[in-house]
Amino acid sequence: MYDETTKKLKEYQIQIVVSFFIIIAVLISINVVNDLYYQTKTGDKNPQIQKNIYKKSKISSLIYLCAGLYFLYITFKSYMKNKTKSNLMFLIASELALIAALIRFMNIRKNDVSNEGDII
Over the Cα atoms of the chain, what is R_g? Predict the structure, then answer.
């Protein structure tokens, strides 16, 4: 009983840390939108600003990807332990979110998205 409670508390602590990283990724994305706003408003096509936007977008999408992997692991573990319809739906949602994060990361990594409006 005590070991299982300790294990659950440790898992919750890790989830809090991962959620904190997701909040950081959201703040980075807000900063990217702010940079895009500034760039569009001023018409400034400074290559350094575009490089920073690309770098921030890549970091943000990598954080989402890592968080998605972790939450998929958690949901898979939860589903294997308790095979309910609710856990299955949560597992499917985690898989879809991970696929979306992977597509976004690959798009940012492989394509020049500095001129696109959808960079975050």
Answer: 18
